[in-house]
Automatic annotation (TrEMBL):
Domain Orn/DAP/Arg decarboxylase 2 N-terminal residue range list: 24-266
GO biological process, one term: lysine biosynthetic process via diaminopimelate
Cofactor(s), by name: pyridoxal 5'-phosphate
Alphabetized InterPro entries for the sequence: Ala_racemase/Decarboxylase_C, DAP_deCOOHase_LysA, De-COase2_C, De-COase2_N, Orn/DAP/Arg_de-COase, PLP-binding_barrel
TM region positions: none
Organism: Algibacter mikhailovii
Name recorded for this polypeptide: Diaminopimelate decarboxylase
Molecular-function GO term, any one: pyridoxal phosphate binding
Purpose of the protein: Specifically catalyzes the decarboxylation of meso-diaminopimelate (meso-DAP) to L-lysine.
Binding-site residues for substrate, renumbered to this chain: 298, 302, 329, 356
Keyword Lyase in annotation: yes
Catalytic residue list: 328
């Protein structure tokens, strides 16, 4: 998308506002499917939690994608968007047996990552096929909060517990249709990913009725100039070859599944804010925008970097700014950034705002959440209205604390 198209959206729809470029989502989807084109059965399940707007889900449906869900509400959202239950996989962590049963009842694919739940579910519903989430204990770099493959991780069933899984399967006669791993975000080293895949293949051999192997996600996208991203094309070539060889050995053309979130939507997103004030202190020039970590928490939560561009003055002289929000708490979006000269009223664009931005937004400071706009076919479409004060009050229950009238004694 061009900067002047973004600027026009901020003018037409107000700020702050999230904008997603449908074309970028489509091209990322096709880039990934192309990289694995030599695999006979490939399935991409978009990870809904990255960006869960129903119109985004419908866009993925139109591309032929399935979805990966982590709560019963995401399952319901997927069904509401028109996905058939077979196109939905439920991959929760730490949810109750009841929630898994509820999802199974809706007919979606079930992924279990806990021995106790596996045993209970297999005992009660031996006929329902189940996929097992394995923790191969391979760390895929990145932030400690989003690395989920390490030994202390709460995710997956450890590969060291395979004998226990096999015992449960044998005793309950349950049907295991898939093997899954998700090693966490930020795969940089393809060799490490392939190493984890070997562990998954080894595990897969022990189950005779598989339909698919799910390699999770964690593909890294560039957040700033010079960032290394996962080399999808190279990974595609190497893993496809290995997968095809495995299928021969296994004696069946299995489905190769992935469940990317960030890779598919991160770069499609721009978050537009307006500068309320430029504040010069003894040491810094602050640009204070009409938003905060209530709308985009990643910098404060994970220390993530989002490039910030002044689209109102793209050719202005560059100066150093610290860009902060309006939340009454330290609320820094970017420290000491080189940005084209900022005046009050300018529109700043935060890049890579597609994944884990709106979906993690809150009403902290009793602020309304922004609108969301999808740029599709060269036109801006509102896909979520800006919240209003009524939304802030909705579901709150007012008690009456007015003093009780004194009883008059006759
Ligand atoms: C969050 C999540 C994903 C998506 O991860 P990205 O880094 O956004 O690609 C995939 N699978 C599971 C099980 C997840 O929890």
């Amino acid at each position: 998308m061009l900067e002047n198209q973004l600027l026009k959206i901020a003018q037409d729809f107000g700020s702050p506002v999230y904008v997603y470029d449908a074309e970028k989502i489509e091209s990322q989807y096709h880039r990934l499917t192309n990289a694995f084109k030599s695999v006979k059965h490939l399935k991409l399940n978009y990870a809904v939690k990255a960006l869960s707007n129903i119109s985004i889900l419908k866009l993925f449906k139109s591309l032929g994608s399935g979805i990966d869900t982590v709560s019963i509400q995401e399952v319901q959202l997927g069904l509401a968007a028109g996905f058939s239950p077979e196109q939905i996989i439920f991959t929760p962590n730490g949810v109750s047996l009841q929630e898994i049963e509820e999802a199974a009842q809706l007919g979606v694919k079930i992924n279990i990552d806990n021995l106790s739940i596996l045993e209970q579910f297999g005992t009660k519903h031996p006929k329902t096929p189940v996929c097992i989430r394995i923790n191969p204990h391979v760390m895929a770099g990145g932030n400690a909060n989003i690395s989920v493959g390490h030994i202390d991780s709460k995710f997956g069933i450890s590969i060291h517990q395979i004998p226990h899984i096999l015992r449960i399967v044998e005793n309950t006669k349950m049907n295991i249709n898939g093997i899954h791993m998700h090693t966490g975000s930020d795969i940089l080293d393809i060799e490490v990913f392939l190493y984890a895949s070997e562990i998954l293949f080894d595990t897969a051999k022990q189950f005779k009725n598989l339909d698919f192997i799910d390699f999770g996600s964690g593909f890294k996208v560039p957040y700033k100039e010079g960032d290394i991203e996962t080399n999808i094309e190279e990974l595609g070539k190497k893993l496809s070859n290995r997968f095809n060889a495995f299928c021969k050995e296994y004696g069946k053309d299995l489905t190769l599944a992935f469940e990317p979130g960030k890779f598919l939507v991160s770069e499609s997103g721009s978050f537009l804010t307006q500068v309320n004030a430029v504040k010069q202190t003894t040491s810094t020039v602050f640009a204070q925008v009409d938003s905060g970590f209530n709308h985009l928490i990643r910098p404060m939560f994970y220390g993530s970097h989002h490039d910030i561009v002044n689209i109102s003055n793209p050719n202005g002289r560059e100066r150093f700014y610290t860009v902060v929000g309006y939340i009454c708490e330290t609320d820094t979006f970017g420290n000491n950034r080189r940005i084209n000269e900022i005046k009050e009223g300018d529109i700043l664009c935060f890049k890579n705002a597609g994944a884990y931005c709106f979906s993690m937004a809150s009403n902290y400071n009793s602020r309304c959440r922004p609108a969301e706009v999808l740029w599709y076919n060269n036109k801006a479409h509102v896909i979520r209205k800006r919240e209003t004060f009524d939304d802030i009050l909705r579901n709150q229950v007012e008690l009456d604390f007015s003093p009780k009238k004194e009883k008059v004694i006759a």
